[in-house]
Batch of 3 targets.
Target 1
Amino acid sequence: MKRALVLVAMLACKRTDDDPKKTTALPPTPFDEVDVDLPPGSSDLALDDRGHLWSIAERDRVISEIELTDNPIATRVTHHPVDGVPDGVDTEAIAWLGGGKFAIGTEGQQEATAAVMFGELGTDGRIAIHPALSFTNDQLGVVMTKNHGVESLCGRGDDLLVGIESWGTLPDGGRWSPLIRLHGGAVTEIAKLRLTSDRGKLSALYCTFAPDGTADVIGIERHYGVSRILAFSDALGAKEITPKIAMDLWTVVRDRYHEKLNLEGIVTLADGRWVMVNDNQGAQVDGPTKLFVFHSR
């Protein structure tokens, strides 16, 4: 484990120009870098009722249960084999729904597909996955490309938010990603989530729901040259959502990790700390899979 002090741009950050790499940073924010036994290509995190983390790998058919301990901070991991994922599909996102049930986001390796599957943890420790819902270009309002499907999920019970990695262009030239609401496995709304850079894509979501249905959300927008934590609220009936940049990590990714850190999962622990995971499977990223535990702000 390593402890680092990093310069990040918080909610009040101000862009100095149109280059997404350049921001005015506020004082250092500490985080712990934690070794964890996860397969390559770990792409997302979810949080269950006990405070356990769940991580899913893109192509290894396994979902990993992570117990995070403190004093000293460490991890204990249980790997759960996954059954039922179709060939040619990457599992990119995971949400804990309660009662041992999960939602899984997928995309096509060679085809432009995006889908949500559902799974349940069995008494034998295996997780059986069943296809459920696929999305189309006409439905989403964007032209999907291969490897850019359902990259992020969050929710609870019957309610889910689904983030699509493919993006569209707004009338003012800005960019947006589809943000889909599901209830009981059916689409109820699709909003346009405005992106904050000229190249970043939505790669992770974590949310909680208020009694009126409003979702309070944090997410990750990332690409080469972009690594940002977004914060926003999604009220029922919202058509377009403009997030705030809650944290800009690009200077950390560039300087400490030589542009090779790809963050693709985020949750908020009960004590307010953020936990993120990196996906180390790609042409321009490398290094071991780790958890990044940010201290409470």
Target 2
Amino acid sequence: MSIGVRDAGTLFRWFEKAKKYFEPFKPELKNQIINYRSKKSEINLLINVPDSVRRKLAKIEVPAYQNFRITEMIDGVSFNQLGNLWFLEGGKWKLDASKLPASEVYLVRLEGQVSESALQGLVRIQPSSNRDQTEEEDKYWLNSMLKNAELLKRIWQELRVEDVNVGVKVSIEKCFSIAIPAQLVKRLTEIKKWIEVGRGKDREEVMRQWSRLRRLSYEGASEKDAVDAIDSLTTGEMFTKYISVDQPYRIGEVRRSSIFKGIFPESMLVDAFTILNLRNPTAIGYLVFKKKKYSDEIRKTFE
């Protein structure tokens, strides 16, 4: 195996070692599933334990690795679960082969956590900072892939990485600044300054800022109504109406950024999830923000 694949993390090195302990049973890897978001992994291994091997090897022992554990064993003929035949003792998973039914073929399931370094070595995610702009829409390029896919095919019959997240920061500040009445923007800006000044100890500056604020009149929505409207327009539920994503991606959590530019949120944070496997090791597409329709909705709200 190349150094590049080894750098994907100790997960692969552990499996190589664990597989050696199963070698008397002709192990066949059925599949491995990794959840990128939760960092959980599941490995399904098919083993053969004929009577001749069972008489020769009474016990099967596999060294325990970090928090990986053997969670299930299934009879390959009847597909019945075989109960808690495996037990952890002295840093090893152990099985009394004499207690196995005479099916000879069994599916062993292993589950555990994958390290962050292993995930970084396995998956490459291109930051989606570049975008194509028109008057109607902003497009954010999504690109993720399995690293060294050809080499990974030599190790795994099936490898599936779920919930690969390409996070997108969708800029929205300009949508608000062009759609909300300028006089209201000025008043909200002065209120923000007054609050900031009020946190200090210069009472004269507080009074001057208050005086500037009182001189700004606005016939329209109250400041509280305006702030409530901004909050409403930047909920995940509302904003999702104005974004779409190409397959093989799907939209996950949508939330407002905590960073403000002036009085408006700078951006919305959108999770775009996909699945990578050895048949489709690369996922590309666009996340589209319908910014004109969103600006029109803001303008309509403040009319």
Target 3
Amino acid sequence: MISDVLAYYRTRLKALGRTEWVDPDFATVPKPRLATAFHLQFGDIRGLSNNQSHQEIEVPVTVRLPYPPDRKPTTLIDTAVAYADIVLTDLLKAENRTTADGLIDVRFDTLSIEPLAETNDNGVVLVLGFTALVAISTR
């Protein structure tokens, strides 16, 4: 089920010590929460193949992990990239993704590091794009 996708990401990111920021407006994360927050967003969900027993669904998910301003932006970017390795290892680990209810697979798609805000405050956001594959029973 599609709700299983959200549950998977929430469980894995909380296990890494992050707390979900559920406000749809990611820009409203308060500064004290920047070092530990995560934000999830669905992309356009697409139906794939179906048959007599199930419908496969592709669910794009964007994970945003903010980092508060630092006097040395290069160090902050290095920290964000090193953390990306940790997140990718956890989310893509077979024992995590293949045992989650309703989830068939999780694929990594993209990584970018963006400014935290339009103003130059030296904070960054690690943005990871994934595609989850789920199957819904049609029986």
